[in-house]
Amino acid sequence: MDRPMTNGNRTSPAAKRDFSPDGKYFPTPNGLPNPTQDQILQIQKAAFGTLPNGPPPAKVSEEGLTNLRLLALNELFEVAFFTELIHNVTNKVHGYDLGHGHNYVLDSLKAIQSQEELHALNVNGALKKFNAGPIEPCRYSFPVTDFQSAINLAATFTDLVLGTLQDVNFIFAQNGDAGLVRGVSSVLGNEAEQEGFYHVLQSKRPTTLPFLTTSVRDFAFTALQSFFIPGSCPNIGTIKLKTFAPLNVLTTGIKPVTQSLKFSFSLSKSGGSDWESFRIVYINQQNLPVVKKLQNVDVKGDVVTFHADFPFDEFTMNGLTIAAVVKGDGPFPTAAAVADVAIFGPGLIEV
């Protein structure tokens, strides 16, 4: 897959190429994924806090291990992303010179990066303690060429993380892994603080929604892979989650109004052309998923484009909306029920 976690706009990541032409980010200058104890002490100092020093639970379920593996995959991705962003801001690469406030933003990003490094060390450390083996880094490609596009992307993937951590905690609770909920909840709070910072950098309100949009692990697992260079993840196969075919959101600059949005997907991955049985489903906030028909379906070669109503006003669909194409009318009681039958997704819409 080669698609961004944004509204379908992919641009050549020119600024990135000077930093990591081959997409290799690890080991980092401070030793991740396997820093020395002295390096860990330096990371903690830069993160303004420490790794948890209490013992992990005595056991973990198989679903709990899947949770930890997905979290590790995401944390390593975030470390790579912020390593590149800080390099570009530090060196004032074209498009990354922020003028007034440059040093404040850079200091804040360095703290975020160090905190993500501790997140990665913590979750991979838990996998080691459970004799499950740590998740190893991939090689990455980020579709950003300036500071604003980088922050827009950071805000989008952080929104998805905030939704996914809800699912992770729910699955821990379902499977008797209560001992892991508190630590993940503390990370959820840290990610929410980050998201408020990104909103301010985008001249948005720090807080978006009273109840943040939920997600499920399969959507996050699929979205993450859009940033991985194919074949570069040594042990991603240990993460037993589904990968959906891409759903591209073609409408850009989406405003907070009811409107028709344009999407596309691959005909060869659709399993047929019975468009009347296909539906697009929107997941927003903690509400029941919204189901809409595909309209104006057009096929050119292997690309299927269509429009669908986006009922913003009826449901006040601010913040992140996760879109997926399914076969069947629903209704769907939960986001997990959508993922169970999804063919294409996730399409990530930010309003």
Automatic annotation (TrEMBL):
Identification of the protein by name: Late sexual development protein
> Which portions of the chain have biased composition (kind: Polar residues)?
1-12
Q: Where is this region: Disordered?
A: 1-32
Q: Which domain of life is it from?
A: Eukaryota
Which organism is the protein's source?
Answer: Amniculicola lignicola CBS 123094
UniProt xrefs under Pfam families: Ferritin_2 (PF13668)
